[in-house]
């Protein structure tokens, strides 16, 4: 347990940051899943629209360094390739 006022405050801040970052990670995963669901449905136009929204979310979260920029780029690239490969 934290013994000093400073340590208690840092513990509170760490808890708040962990909750916020967890919510951001969840938003990232949800955005990716929405695109995958649209791809599975087979509608290329709808998938492209959802992809554009997901890219915005993914970039915003990567800019905050919650996920590494390369991880974000990898997800965007794979999703774009999956949309492009649709018949």
TrEMBL record:
GO terms for cellular component: cytosol; small ribosomal subunit. InterPro entries: Ribosomal_bS20, Ribosomal_bS20_sf. Pfam families: Ribosomal_S20p. It comes from the Bacteria. GO terms for molecular function: small ribosomal subunit rRNA binding; structural constituent of ribosome. Gene3D superfamilies: Ribosomal protein S20. Keywords: Ribonucleoprotein, Ribosomal protein, RNA-binding, rRNA-binding. Residues 1-27 are annotated as: Disordered. One of its GO terms (biological process) is translation. The keyword Nucleotide-binding does not apply. Residues 17-27 have a biased composition (Basic and acidic residues). Binds directly to 16S ribosomal RNA. Belongs to the bacterial ribosomal protein bS20 family. NCBIfam families: S20 (TIGR00029). This is Small ribosomal subunit protein bS20. It comes from Chitinibacter fontanus.
């Amino acid at each position: 347990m934290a013994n000093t006022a400073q340590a208690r405050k840092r513990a509170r801040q760490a808890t708040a940051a962990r909750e916020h970052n967890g919510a951001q990670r969840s938003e990232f995963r949800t955005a990716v899943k929405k695109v995958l669901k649209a791809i599975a449905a087979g509608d290329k136009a709808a998938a492209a629209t959802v992809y554009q929204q997901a890219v915005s979310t993914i970039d915003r979260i990567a800019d905050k360094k919650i996920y590494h920029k390369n991880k974000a780029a990898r997800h965007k690239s794979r999703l774009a390739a999956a949309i492009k490969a649709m018949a």
